[in-house]
Design goal:
Elements lengths: L6 E5 L11 E8 L2 H13 L4 E4 L5 E2 L5 E8 L4 E4 L10 H9 L30 E8 L4 H10 L15 H7 L2 E2 L2 E2 L4 E7 L5 E5 H4 L15 E11 L2 H15 L16 H6 L7 H8 L6 E2 L2 E2 L9 E2 L5 H19 L8 E2 L2
Parallel strand pairs: 2-5, 3-5, 4-16
Antiparallel strand pairs: 1-2, 6-7, 7-12, 8-9, 10-11, 10-12, 13-14, 14-15
Length: 346
Amino acid sequence: MDFPGIQQHVILAPYTTWGIGGEAEFFLEAKTSEEIIEAVKVAKQNSLKFYILGNGSNVLVPDEGLKGLVIVNKTKGIEVLGGGNLGELDDLENKEMASISPTVEVPHRHNETGDENFLKFADLDYVETGEIKQVKFDSGVDIGFAIAWCLKNNLSGLQWYAGIPSTMGGALFNNIHGGTHHFSERFSSAQIIDENGEIREVTAEFFNFGYDQSVLREKPEIIVLSVTLNLFEGDVERSKLVAMDWLRRKKVQPRKSCGSVFKNLTEEDKTRLNLPNPSAGYVIDKLLGMRGYKVGNMQIPETHGNFIVNLGGGTAAETLEIINKVKSEALEKLGLVMVEEVKIMD
């Protein structure tokens, strides 16, 4: 395939947080949105399937690799728009309303469990206020970098997602959550390449946000180029303290993993099973007794039931065996359908 920078037969394991994955048939590290746009056009012209990887978290790449073009998104642009302009929210009254109201409020069912001193976040929660600034991020911008950039520029609103190994595109894909906060709360718009190859600006309605959910999970052919957020000129010092404490508490979560493997339970399942919280980790640990369960070099760690860690040399096949075992045990013993949060690529 004739395109600058495209390589062949590149091992994908180093590009995932799990350290798992076979070869990409074709591979490109894209530094700009224009490179992504042109690479997608070339892939379509050559009838190739294409994939976008950000930080490689929350995905499982198969051992046999991926046919087609894998684009690793390394775009890094950040731009403050219009000195706080809110588009349709152009009068003072609406600006004040926007400063305390989320763009899209998603009912949460997130309640971290484990050591009471580290994995509870309710004490850090507060309602943010302040004038809104709109900031446009390239989809490849790392969340941790974005938080640091915001704090340096006296903006807050992203501190709830400290410690999540995601890019802006991945955050939108999964509508990531931090405690009771979802990414969609501060979302304004996104620039995408749609299913027909058209470049469009779309708003929240397009994404059908839910708990760990957006339309992108069902339509992977849609590519996000940039994300515009409504952020606060607010209490940056408090935001910084929250981000730092969030990071400290999350240090007890296992590394060399994809993050949480399963979605937390619905309120209906939590009530039916008479559980103290909706945590998938609680179910796997306390009800199924699978903490420490191991297949090959992949293991559910002793520290957190909703993680699977790579002990070194682990494979996608071993990971899937653990995932399927958890699902079958939950269904057989509890009548519970466990739903993956991780995206299994094919």
